[in-house]
Amino acid sequence: MRDGSGSHALTSRIHRFGVALALCAFCIPSSASALEARTFTLENGLKGIVARESKAPVVIAQMWYRVGSVDEKPGKAGLSHMLEHMMFQGTESVPPEAFSKIIAREGGEDNASTTTDYTMYYVKLASDRLELALRLEADRMRGLKLSEEEFTSENLVVREERRMRTDADPNQRMLERYRALLFGDHPYGRPVIGSMKEIEGLTLADLTAWYQTYYAPNNATLVVVGDVDPEETEQLVKKHFAHLASQPQIPKPQLPDPPSRQEPARLEVTDKGAKLPIWMAGYTVPSWAMTPDTNDAMALDILATVLGGGGSSRLHTRLIRELALAVSASASYSGHAMSWEPFSLSAMPKAGADLKELEKAMFEEVERLQQEPVPARELEKAQNGLIAERVYAMDAIDHIAWIIGRMSLNGQDWRMMFDDYPARVRAVTSADLQRVARKYLQPARLTVGILKP
Amino acid sequence: MTARRFFTGLWVAVFWLLWMASGNAATPRERDKIQTWVEENGLQVILIENHVNPMVEVRILARGGAAHDPVGREGLASLTAWMFNEGGGEFDSSAFQERLHYYGISMAADVGSDTIEVHLTSLSEHLDEAFARMGDAMLRPRFAQADFERALRERSAELIKSEEDPSFRASRALMPMIFGNHPYARPTTGTQESIKRIELADIRLHHQSTFRAPGMVMAIAGDVTRDQIEARLKRHLEKLSSEPGPFVPPPKATPAEKGLEKHIEMDQPQTTVRMGVVAMDREDPDFYALTVMNQLLGGGGLTSRLNQVVREERGLAYGIFSGFSPLAGRGPFTISTETKTESAREAVALIRSELKRMMEEEISEAELGDVLRYLTGSFPLHLDGLDKLAETWCRIGFYRRGLDYLDTWPDKIRAVTRADIQRVAKRILNLDRLQTVTVGRSSTNPPKTAADPSPSPADPPR
Questions:
Q1: Using one digit for the tens of pLDDT, what is the confidence trace for B31-71?
Q2: Which of A306, B106, B230, B276 is the most exposed place for a label (fewest CB within 10 A)?
């Protein structure tokens, strides 16, 4: 993400660690009509999905490239993110830094974000100006001009971004090490932004090669959602993108299994910048994309809600209300990654709390999920909450487009997060919850991290 | 839960302003029918009907924000807001939260400088349940001792954790420098000492003083009709007090005579820079000129002058922003950025030189044209969801901007001239009164004088 004003930068890193579940919630209820959408693939391989949502005269165009830190080699971490920044540095027809100015002049907003799995660019503007966004997006898909001068100063910006996001924050410093331990040799263990040394070592040649390899219509998905006609929009997309050449061989990332251990991995970090401890734990579990024929991912999602979703959840009740050991406690699971992801538990102990006692109570709650079926009312509460959150998320076209893009990139049918979602949530039983708790919340998959002042 | 909440209220207002700043235009669409009325008890209601999605967003603003905290008990309004969803009527805290979650209802309160703001989101099918719980929370709060103690534990931990965050520390230092003895100087979430002085009886009293029908504004956006709302208000909130209550808008703040620079030592690879000065309230005739000037100087996105000079040309920062918050008693205008230790002096100097340029040189016609096109053109982006509609209309109601506020906004923005921008820059961005805080390693400590240390000449106007 190149604009410091937002909070969704490096999205996957943020939300996979369970700080917020905001992006997990999209859908429509069974009562609402299905989203009117059109899906197509151009001859050069560009996938397009256009959905009509005409609540306001606005449209968002998101261009998703299937490239992220997962494709990078050690020593070159941060390449995808650096390239994301450079994508605003001009083409034959658009001078450096003019992209955002052109969009702003038309009353639009634009930004981008890079994660482990993808790099995504968006423009949001009045729906009658969509063609401008498509033209600019097509122009920079194959026509980026990378110059040493622009790169030098943008590289400094990215170093500042790293300082701000990670180096100046004891919690993020810790999370970077925790993630490395949790994922071992899996590329998810490397920071999306790269280490400072890696950022400093990136070259224009690296970026040029990366751009030529991955920025092509057959590695991209364009999602358009808003007050537009899907058929007309498809014609507009053809007009601007059909002439672009595809790229013959796009490498696939290597996605090894995460480490399997005899006993849980542990990381304790003492950081004088920290003023209160943070306790965290993560089980490496599969995502939706990895379990297409089961409801394991849906069950894990519900399990996280039962365990740590909000002020009436089990962790909140036990750790905060009853034992008064912690001032925050939560569980989270996103399910949207291409590969493995953590089922995360986290807590902030109150000052002076016994961390061993806190950890013991945390794992007792996990064991309880394995040993006792979740009562019907509690299961329904979690299901109701998830379904309601998806209705609420439909209020924003940004979220609708995000979920369509995210699912499509993983080769999944995005409609299952819309039309079919309530039925899929309701289909999960207490027995399913107990089954996935036993199957996945195992010590061999577990990493525990503690940040101490 | 960590830090950054010190400023919550102010920043909510700033974001609102940025939305507003982005435009208006077109009359709201036909389907977003706006209706407004006053209930018998004095509650002002604004309804934006929209039946696309089977849900409802409710926002309530009530006078009783942090500016109304008693001296010595700072954090009271914030804790009162924290306690808002901790049980009411026949439900204790746990049962209350369980019930909200069971129906997929989200309900909580947050604190700003002027107001306590209640957010309620519900499926339309559960709206009666949602209003019933809101009635419990407002009229029959439980305020149990155990829950209050939990609130204090959490607040205390949050204050400790906030010390990790340089922007929290910078803001905490900056507000008293900007506002002196004015209530806006006080820390919204209180201090370890001040929260120890707060008792449950204080919370009860603050709650009773805040949630009164007159002066309170409720905006509702979504899948509901006026009849349905009126029936629920009658059933669940009719008994709200019709007496105005003790809180009156805070006095108008005046800028400190002299701008100071303060450095806070913190072992960090970056220096956090925060600058600020008293700006204005919403009634100020210069409100629109300041809106345009702010967008040009350091408004959102990557097109502002500060962004151009500090980020694009020199690579000194990832983000640099200005913003203002037009509170009832005149909110602050602030500038914020983070840069590596060695660049802190240069960044401060560049910011000052950009402010100076804004005061000394008229902006170009082309720049004015671009910024006006952005502000007026981006209008629909900022009202494209029920949450945004409810939030915006609630503020329009609370700050009495009038029902035609959005309709007249673009013309008022378009009427701003280059001379207006220079005049408002001179009025607000007075370098002698500008307060500066830096948080980081001491080698970056900027000069202790208020003189302009600018080593680089201002860029020529483009």
A1: 467 999 999 999 999 999 999 899 999 999 999 999 999 99
A2: B230
Task: Enter the CATH code of domain B8-236.
Answer: 3.30.830.10
- A120 phi/psi in degrees, rounded to 5: -130, 135
Q: Say whether B383 and A311 touch across the interface (CB within 8 A).
A: no
Interface of A with B in 392-431 (CB under 8 A): 392, 394-397
Asked if B387 and A171 come within 8 Å (Cβ–Cβ), the reply is no
Contact B18, B299 (CB under 8 A): yes
Question: Which stretches of B245-372 are assigned E, i.e. beta strand?
Answer: 261-265, 270-278, 320-324, 332-340
| Catalytic sites of A, residue numbers | 84
Give per-residue pLDDT as tens, B188-220.
999 999 999 999 999 999 999 999 999 899 999
What is the CATH code for B261-444? Answer: 3.30.830.10
Residue B460 pLDDT greater than 80, yes or no:
no
**CATH fold label, A35-241:** Cytochrome Bc1 Complex; Chain A, domain 1 (3.30.830)
In this complex, the residue of B302, B319, B385 whose CB is nearest that of residue A396 is B385
Predicted TM-score (pTM) of the model is 0.90
Task: Answer yes or no: do A273 and B267 touch at CB < 8 A.
Answer: yes
- The CATH number that domain A265-452 falls under is 3.30.830.10
Closest-CA residue of B relative to A27 is B53
Vertex B348 angle, CA B345 and B351, to 5° = 145
Please state, in angstroms and rounded to a whole number, the distance separating the CA atoms of residues A124 and A6: 14
- CA-closest candidate to residue A100, choices B370, B407, B164: B370
Residue-by-residue DSSP string for B228-272:
HHHHHHHHHTTTS--S--S--PPPPP---SS--EEEEE---SEEE
Tokens 């577990």 belong to which residue? A446
Contact at CB, A3 and B301, closer than 8 angstroms: yes
Domains A35-241 and A265-452 share a fold: yes
Please identify among residues 258-277 of chain A the ones whose CB lies closer than 8 Å to any CB of chain B: 272-276
Domain ranges (residues) in chain A: 35-241, 265-452
pLDDT value for A14: 24
Nearest-Cα residue of chain A relative to residue B98: A312
CB atoms < 10 A from the CB of A31, how many? 11
Q: Which residue of B has its CA nearest to A313?
A: B98
* ipTM confidence: 0.91
Instruction: Tell me whether residue A269 is exposed, middle or buried, using C-beta atoms within 10 angstroms of its C-beta: 0 to 12, 13 to 18, 19 or more.
Output: middle
Give CATH 3.30.830.10 domain extents, chain B. Answer: 8-236, 261-444
